[in-house]
Specification:
about 260 residues, three-stranded antiparallel sheet, alpha/beta, 12 helices
């Protein structure tokens, strides 16, 4: 009787351990996606559609592409990286941190955002911004930090193209990423700013002011690329592949992205 009780107890303990292991494994299969901030509204919608279609959840983390690249180099536990600059993906691949050199998924655009009540005009040619510099209307202007945010780097290129960069020194408010720059450009912290088209299209941002696209010839193209980090689980690959499907691409286009030419 005692041995039967012992066997039952051992069996029950084994079952509990197996269930615990299964629960642990299940918890670990929720892929973590490090995504550039310009993707916030688009990827939240794509991820919701993916979960609805597959039942698979995702953990979404948004920030600047340059900072994510550094964190992945240092071993951060991300499974999939969606960069706003393809070069960051190539750098990670060269460092042996990714499965391959990734896949292009979108091309972004920038434009000038001006909050309601601002003395600036939403002029994509930036002529009014130049005039505001001359006549003293401009006090603060927001862009993302060009040192690590691709949208900030492209904003800098566009401003240099129009010979405005030097005059804006001392008036720039730098966002840690393009989402923060958009907050600065619409909240009164600045009188305007250069932000991502994908953010300007979001109703929560659009209602705060006016927006105009900047000619894409004024800066390097915002070629955006994604890649699986080494050791990524199958669930991460499933979302990686889902991004290239027609339903996902339709969402991306609606949020202001162009699809890459392969």
């Amino acid at each position: 009787m005692r041995s039967t009780h012992f066997a039952f107890a051992r069996s029950a303990a084994g079952l509990l351990l197996s269930l615990a292991a299964l629960h642990s494994a299940s918890a670990q299969t929720v892929p973590t996606l490090a995504a550039a901030s310009d993707l916030k509204f688009a990827i939240e919608e794509v991820a919701a559609q993916f979960e609805k279609s597959t039942g698979q959840k995702l953990r979404l983390v948004f920030g600047s592409s340059g900072n994510f690249k550094t964190q992945i180099l240092q071993g951060a536990p991300f499974h999939l990286f969606m960069s706003a600059d393809e070069n960051f993906v190539y750098e990670l691949a060269d460092a042996g941190k990714t499965e391959d050199r990734g896949r292009a998924y979108a091309v972004g655009r920038i434009g000038i955002m001006v909050p309601h009540g601002s003395p600036l005009k939403a002029d994509g040619e930036l002529k009014d911004l130049a005039a505001a510099l001359r006549d003293g209307r401009l006090q603060k202007f927001a862009i993302a930090n060009p040192d690590h945010a691709p949208y900030g780097a492209r904003a800098m290129e566009a401003l240099k193209h129009q010979q405005l960069w030097d005059g804006l020194q001392g008036k720039l408010v730098l966002g840690e990423n393009i989402s923060q720059a958009a907050q600065f450009a619409t909240s009164g912290s600045a009188q305007g700013g250069i932000i991502a088209y994908s953010l300007a299209l979001a109703p929560t941002v659009a209602r705060l002011g006016s927006f105009a696209l900047i000619p894409e010839q004024w800066h390097q193209p915002l070629k955006q690329r994604m890649v699986l980090v080494k050791g990524a689980p199958p669930e991460a690959r499933a979302f990686y592949d889902y991004i290239s499907t027609a339903p996902a691409q339709e969402i991306m286009v609606r949020h202001g992205f162009a699809m890459p030419k392969h």
